[in-house]
Each structure stands twice: as C-alpha cells, then as structure tokens.
Write a structure and sequence with these properties.
By secondary structure, the chain is α/β, with parallel strands linked by helices. It has one domain: P-loop containing nucleotide triphosphate hydrolases (Rossmann fold). It is built from 7 helices and 9 strands; from the N terminus they run E-H-E-E-E-H-E-E-H-E-H-E-H-H-E-H. The strands form 2 sheets. It has a 5-stranded parallel β-sheet, sandwiched between helices. The protein has a 4-stranded mixed β-sheet with strand order 4-3-6-5. The longest helix has 15 residues.
C-alpha cells in the first residue's frame, strides 16, 4: 500500500465520512489530525477531529515550519497539517491519510511527490448542493462561499492521481483502499 495518501475534494462531498469508514475497516491506517483556527462544530473534539488553535498559535506553527501544508479555506479560517505526526508515522512504516483541501494537496504534491493524491467527487453538482444544505452547519452566505470554492476545486480534478465518485460511502471507501493498495 502507498504510505501517504491525500484525500481532497469539495466541501460536503463526504471526505470525512469516507475516511472514517476506511479507519473503521482498517484501523492500522492512520489519519492526520489537522490544525485549524475555526471554532469546533457540535460534537467535534480537540485533538481528535482537529487541533483547534488561535490565529497566533497557527502563525507560530507556520513560522517554525511545524506544518507540512497550510491554507486559508473558504476565505475564513486557517487549516494545516502538523508535520511531526506524519513524518513519525511514515518513518515507522505506517500508512497515513491526509484529508485536506486543494491548496494543501498542491503543497503536498510539491514537497512529497510520492504521495498518492485522490480526489473525492460528488455524483453531480445538485447532490453536492443538497449535502451541503442538509448539514445545517453554515449560513446561506457561507454556503455560497463554499459552493464557489467547490467549483474551483472541481475544476482541478486533473491535478490528482485518481478521482473517486462518492455515491455510496462503503463503495467509495473500498475504491480508495483499492487505489491505496495498487500504488
């Protein structure tokens, strides 16, 4: 199996759900926990879902090269992948998944070209809009920003090694696992 796999795709496509399915069926695979400056959503836990940090702490992490990649997402909040846990897992021969955005995937492609980049896509645009609205976690204005970002992300599918359509979580997860094994 490829040791480093990047999972990216537009907002509300189900990246997190697919990654959770993979981890539930293959607990030996690790997922990187990203740092973010946004507030936790209901049910999210610091250190498990994200490392929720202040803007000042995030800037310090950037300046001290503690992040493999980082970006401002949806024009609102910083997200980044802490370097140390990824480097340590890879050095120990473990498989690692990074669930990140397009900007981060591009940075990983530059710094770690051996990484396996997989784009998770929706079955169609209408389904993506439905999933985003159904989440109920964003305002109408935030939804509009996320959909504009999603259009840009969808236009970049050619930058990825593989594209997997998320029609069914288990089917999508299995396809991602198959691609990880083939790489």
């Amino acid at each position: 199996m490829s040791r480093l796999t990047v999972i990216a795709g537009p907002t509300a496509v189900g990246k997190g759900t697919v990654v959770r399915w993979i981890l539930d069926t293959h607990p030996e695979i690790q997922v990187s926990v990203s740092a973010t400056t946004r507030e936790p959503r209901p049910g999210e836990e610091h250190g498990k879902d994200y490392y929720f940090v202040s803007a000042a702490e995030f800037e310090r992490m950037q300046l001290e090269s503690e992040l493999l990649e980082f970006a401002v997402v949806h024009g609102a909040h910083n997200y980044g992948t802490p370097r140390k846990p990824v480097v340590e897992a890879l050095a120990a021969g473990k498989q690692m998944i990074l669930e990140i955005d397009l900007q981060g995937a591009r940075q990983i492609r530059q710094s770690m070209p051996e990484a396996n980049l997989i784009f998770i896509a929706p079955p169609n645009w209408e389904e993506l809009e439905r999933r985003l609205a159904q989440r109920g976690t964003e305002s109408e204005e935030q939804i509009a920003v996320r959909l504009a970002t999603a259009r840009e992300e969808m236009a970049a599918v050619g930058e990825f090694d593989y594209v997997v359509i998320n029609t069914d979580v288990a089917e999508c997860g299995q396809q991602v696992l198959d691609l990880m094994q083939a790489s």
